[in-house]
Amino acid sequence: MRPSGRTPDALRPISIETGVNRHAEGSCLIRMGDTHVICTATVEERVPPFKRNSGQGWVTAEYGMLPRATNSRMRREAKSAQSGRTQEIQRLIGRSLRAGVDFVALGERQITIDCDVIQADGGTRCAAITGGWVAMKLAVQKLMSAGLVLSDPLGEPVSALSCGLYAGQPVADLDYAEDSEAGVDGNFVMMGAKLIEVQMSAEGSTFTREQMGQLMDLAEAGAAELARAQLQAVA
Amino acid sequence: MRPSGRTPDALRPISIETGVNRHAEGSCLIRMGDTHVICTATVEERVPPFKRNSGQGWVTAEYGMLPRATNSRMRREAKSAQSGRTQEIQRLIGRSLRAGVDFVALGERQITIDCDVIQADGGTRCAAITGGWVAMKLAVQKLMSAGLVLSDPLGEPVSALSCGLYAGQPVADLDYAEDSEAGVDGNFVMMGAKLIEVQMSAEGSTFTREQMGQLMDLAEAGAAELARAQLQAVA
Amino acid sequence: MRPSGRTPDALRPISIETGVNRHAEGSCLIRMGDTHVICTATVEERVPPFKRNSGQGWVTAEYGMLPRATNSRMRREAKSAQSGRTQEIQRLIGRSLRAGVDFVALGERQITIDCDVIQADGGTRCAAITGGWVAMKLAVQKLMSAGLVLSDPLGEPVSALSCGLYAGQPVADLDYAEDSEAGVDGNFVMMGAKLIEVQMSAEGSTFTREQMGQLMDLAEAGAAELARAQLQAVA
Amino acid sequence: MRPSGRTPDALRPISIETGVNRHAEGSCLIRMGDTHVICTATVEERVPPFKRNSGQGWVTAEYGMLPRATNSRMRREAKSAQSGRTQEIQRLIGRSLRAGVDFVALGERQITIDCDVIQADGGTRCAAITGGWVAMKLAVQKLMSAGLVLSDPLGEPVSALSCGLYAGQPVADLDYAEDSEAGVDGNFVMMGAKLIEVQMSAEGSTFTREQMGQLMDLAEAGAAELARAQLQAVA
Amino acid sequence: MRPSGRTPDALRPISIETGVNRHAEGSCLIRMGDTHVICTATVEERVPPFKRNSGQGWVTAEYGMLPRATNSRMRREAKSAQSGRTQEIQRLIGRSLRAGVDFVALGERQITIDCDVIQADGGTRCAAITGGWVAMKLAVQKLMSAGLVLSDPLGEPVSALSCGLYAGQPVADLDYAEDSEAGVDGNFVMMGAKLIEVQMSAEGSTFTREQMGQLMDLAEAGAAELARAQLQAVA
Amino acid sequence: MRPSGRTPDALRPISIETGVNRHAEGSCLIRMGDTHVICTATVEERVPPFKRNSGQGWVTAEYGMLPRATNSRMRREAKSAQSGRTQEIQRLIGRSLRAGVDFVALGERQITIDCDVIQADGGTRCAAITGGWVAMKLAVQKLMSAGLVLSDPLGEPVSALSCGLYAGQPVADLDYAEDSEAGVDGNFVMMGAKLIEVQMSAEGSTFTREQMGQLMDLAEAGAAELARAQLQAVA
After folding, report:
1. For the domain that residue F230 is a member of, what is the CATH number?
2. pLDDT tens for each residue of F160-212
3. Are E198 and F193 in contact (CB under 8 A)?
4. CA angle, B174 then B175 then B178, to 5°
């Protein structure tokens, strides 16, 4: 039995509210249950050094969490420095959102996706990827409306979900109560039926290939549901 | 004529939405026009070293801004370090919110007010003070309901407003368009008819005592309006 | 009764010794009683990026304190990093000294004012502004003697004074003994009869507009006395 | 055809030389072809705060690379700070080596595994895990010989291997030439037939579940070969 | 011929003004020609961890330079971090001043010597050692007058001098003009006829044992002259 | 009697193994008894700003130590920052290796010598200099073979040795057991019969000119022996 009473394959309620920031070229507030993330996309007409004069664009991401997004207040990262964990998360988000982007079609410009968690209840990096794609898509639509980009550089939605073994049972979309108990869990980033990233980890434990297959089944079904919400948000 | 069409003494629309964070002991989202700040109050049963074993509490504040809160994306502070400007702002917020707090009544515990700007259009530090007081008051109410604090350590609302000379004319509650033009402007923190902090500054310019008096008149009237909205939010 | 026996409006003895550094384009050692600050002005034929190719100059300031300038030894800032308080002070000094400077007349060059407190007894930022103006003026005189600047870019002296409520009474030029007791105090930066900056602050307290007026009266009289000493030093 | 001429499932020559450091409680130099990593295990009779007075031990890892371990010299990390990538790698090593450790049997002491790459040719984090387990095992043997640990807290060897799609074909134990071309690759950490960690990533690409299965087949076979070399080294 | 016209063995005019800081337990302003260093000694009734409960004291030193102490303004160290060169200098000063101190006689307390260069013309680290000893001696005298230290923990003065080959000729007490030309130079720290530290260095050059002997002859004579000035200052 | 049983003038066994790194232009592993240092030379076709367009080259060095090179594990420098001691050592290595280099013959390119201590038993900086010269020489030979450098920019080997007073007796090539006891010790860097650097230091002690002469006699003899090993390694 899951703490929330959800069935093993049930995601939390998904809500994606777009246009939440008047300055950003694309933005949304994604809510996966009590996990809330503000995602903004910033378009800049410059690219990092390794892309200069290539005619190609770039997508990068940054991630943060407000100090009281969590149950106990965390130290503000600006007061120390970005932790390695934060950097690992934002590299994952960036890699995931770059998958399937046609950088030639985008043109020599950079889109920066900022994902800031204002309330956390597990699965923040996955919500950031799912919402980040929506913000990016909205920014691309704006570029296309302005005639700056002619063919859509984005493909199917990029969606991410955490799944894991809770009380020995495979469950989808772990919330914090489950995540802090699960010895085995993973993040699955998908684009339609294809995989972009799989990160399975067992802290102080191990898992079998069969269990991994069960989690991937859950991830596939959940990602399809997320993709529908994403497409609806940008329609 | 103000860019927004407001009369010289007109504040922007004020909205204070409470209970926006399920973890924090007190929270609100304050909107002064297009300036939006999330304020959370965290209660911890410990105090800084200089207050230990004093029987007295403490109030402190931190301030941050999401990278795309502004028109051009700013560098994420966690990637470098808190700027001096940020530290100056958060010291101002902390001093302002400590004014009039009865630390003996609060007891030996600390309230940390986090003010995070999610969208900026001028006057963010003032909105942070005004909203921060609301979050602090809600946290105190929770402590009192729980019987942990017996008499209310807070007094009248602490409210803050920026006023300045725009096109030579004294105006209240500067927005970004005005603030970036104003050679003379100031922040006024008030508690009822009393002053807590006055910061008048003239970049590359000067001002007279008469002009200062006019700005204080505007600040007094505006602070009273803010105090009414604060009291309504915590009622 | 003030600890020093001074009358409420009496400043401490003022001494401004010029030419204390053989390398700097302008320099002085200002003494306000036991507060001693070395001020040097450095002229460089380059400006910050935002002024490049503008034909205009710039003035900036930095502030430091020797570890044993104070009664208890402080940690050397070079061993950690400039504190937010230090940065706040040096931004105040820079803003104050820029007031009324004709940057076109100065030409595309930068003057950096370094203010280093070698002994502290309250009011160091004010002494730094008052002495910093003298160092800047001497550097400008040198530029004019060399024919590099043709018309004087500086106007009246910029003078600064701290005033506050000590034992309920408004007093001028607070020393450390008074400053550490005063719940309400402020820094007033003036240029003749005009104001450049007012920073009134009440730690754990409040003040009225009437009290503020009394402090400004003291500040006006004191600033005039400082201006006379400054003009004498650069004559 | 692989650049090295290896068959798809062929690992590079494996060499594990133990006892390379006279100070460390356990040490080895592992060579996977031209990738060479010095691994040392340090035993300290103290544990991190979250394990104090628990009666349980802890295992942690750190990772570094000499500046000229790579083809182009890299900036020395001590001159800036550990990059996020380095931190991500050392967290992976730590998690992997903790899997299956009986912390009660280890007792309240910490083993720190330092993995320093002295020459790199791809797969350094995997070599670090494989060699790190050997160093840890040797340190544990020393503790047991000294009668400080009574029953062996370690289980089967922890072995790690990178596999990926090179020119569309699944191959095992990628070297640098392959790794820099492979759009899809992953790290597999195993303990016998069980999985500890799977990190599959597609930079600018995607992969199918079928491809993932093929890579896991290669990983399983390779890990078994590594485990034999590890057991031989500690025999 | 030396730029200053001095004979090879002539030191610059020495001046040691004591009691320049009202807060410090001992202080002086030492002038070696145009090199001016403020030295303060701070006594604290605590010692570093490695001396705790040993009944013994400790002496340590810190060194800094005001940004415009030099001909071109240097970056303020507090804005970046103490350079390695600064740390090397202050470790030298500390080692030198600890020589011959009887830490048992001093008792379990620490003396911190701060040496801040307010104007530089070569030889600042040597002036800091020479002046630092005076500040330390004055602080010790104060401790003895107060009955806190019963027998003098200090011996003969510690004096330091830089000597080098200028235009092929051995000269004493290099000033900046000489120092920037000298390919071979050294710092000699002496205590009476005994040596504490010798640092001879040849940038892009070499030297012979005979030349080294000549420089040591100069250093011996110069140190004796410095010691007389030090004893006179503390008399 | 020395702890190792060596005679006062006996060096530890010297071993210099070249070609230990397949990427570096020159490399060796130098062993002075139990002190082991990997030295690599990196040639880059660029020079620091102060050498640009001068037609001249540059040599610089960096130094590091693996955390468990020592008896007790040290904190990894990449986790904090390079200590002042480390910076002091690497400046010494760089100065030493630059002595006698003909930068015009080298041409406008930089050689960076990385010296990483993998096992320490005293005298690491001296071993780094001795081995660093070998790595540099090998890199220069490679440049000459390729016709990029026409006449050899290097002269005689640069060799370094620590000598000190152990139990009152002058001894050569101190190991850790001796070094931690010796109150007086020094590092001598030589090039044939010439001196490049002498650093004699007495922690809490003093020494005479006669003792210094005895140590220099030992250093001269030892350096000659090191030079023979260096020439053999690069033959």
Report:
1. 3.30.230.70
2. 999 999 988 999 999 999 998 888 999 999 998 899 999 999 987 899 999 99
3. no
4. 75
Contact: C64, E62; criterion CB under 8 Å: no
Q: How many domains does chain F have?
A: 1
Q: Where are the alpha helices (DSSP H) in chain A?
A: 84-98, 103-106, 124-145, 176-179, 209-234
What average pLDDT does chain E have? 94
Q: Is D192 exposed, middle or buried (0-12, 13-18, 19+ CB in 10 A)?
A: middle
Burial (CB count within 10 angstroms: exposed 0-12, middle 13-18, buried 19+), residue D145: exposed
pLDDT band at C72 (very low <50, low <70, confident <90, very high): very high
* Position D116 in a domain: yes
Confidence at residue C85, expressed as pLDDT on a 0 to 100 scale: 86
Q: Does C24 touch chain E (CB under 8 A)?
A: yes
DSSP notation for A191-203: ETTEEEEEEEEET
Residue F77: predicted pLDDT: 81
Residue from D54, D25, D55, D30 nearest D40 by CA? D25
Taking each helix axis as running N to C, give the angle between helix C84-98 and helix B84-98, from 0 to 180 degrees, rounded to the nearest 10.
Answer: 100
Question: Counting every residue, how long is chain F?
Answer: 235
**Are B204 and C98 an interchain contact pair (Cβ–Cβ within 8 Å)?**
yes
Q: B22 a known binding residue?
A: no
Report yes or no on D158 lying in a domain.
yes
ipTM of the complex as predicted: 0.87
Containing C18, the helix (H) or strand (E) segment is strand C14-18
Q: Is residue B148 part of a domain?
A: yes
What pLDDT, on the 0 to 100 scale, is given for residue C29?
98
Task: Give the mean pLDDT of A153-158.
Answer: 96
Residue E203 touches chain F, beta carbons under 8 Å? yes
- β-sheet bridge partners, residue C172: C163
Binding-site residues of A for phosphate sit at 85, 123-125
CB-based contact, A80 to chain D, within 8 Å? no
The token pair that represents C72 in the structure block: 């208890």
Task: Say if residue D35's pLDDT is above 80.
Answer: yes
Query: D209 contacts in A (CB within 8 Å)?
Result: 195, 216
CA pair distance B132, B94, nearest whole angstrom: 9
User: CB–CB of C226/C127 below 8 Å?
Assistant: no
What whole-number distance in Å separates Cα of residue C19 and Cα of residue C17?
A: 7
Question: Which chains, if any, share at least 3 CB pairs under 8 A with chain E?
Answer: C, F
CA distance F130 to C53: 52
pLDDT digits (tens, 9 = 90+) for C114-157: 999 999 999 999 999 999 999 999 999 999 999 999 999 999 99
Considering only CB atoms, E88 lies closest to which of F84, F100, F202, namely F84
CA gap A21, A23 in Å, rounded: 6
If phi > 0 it is left, if psi is from -120 to 50 it is alpha, else beta; for residue A37 that is beta
Sequence letter at residue A181: E
Per residue in A89-123, is it b (16+ CB within 10 Å) or e — as a string?
A: bbbbbbbbbbbbbebebbbbbbbbbbbbbbbbbbb
**Measured between alpha carbons, how far is D219 from D227 in angstroms, rounded to an integer?**
12
Say how far apart CA D184 and CA D172 lie, in whole Å. Answer: 12
Query: Chain B residue closest to C154 (CA)?
Result: B204
Average pLDDT, chain A: 94
State the residue range of the domain holding E170. 14-234
Q: Are D226 and D130 in contact (CB under 8 A)?
A: yes
SS3 of residue D137 by DSSP: helix
Residue pair F61/F101 in contact (Cβ under 8 Å)? The answer is no
Q: How many helices (H) and strands (E) does chain F have?
A: 5, 9
Domain membership flag for residue C67? yes
Name the DSSP letter for residue E207: B
As a whole number of angstroms, the distance between CA F42 and CA F62 comes to 11
Pairing of strands F184-191, F158-166: antiparallel
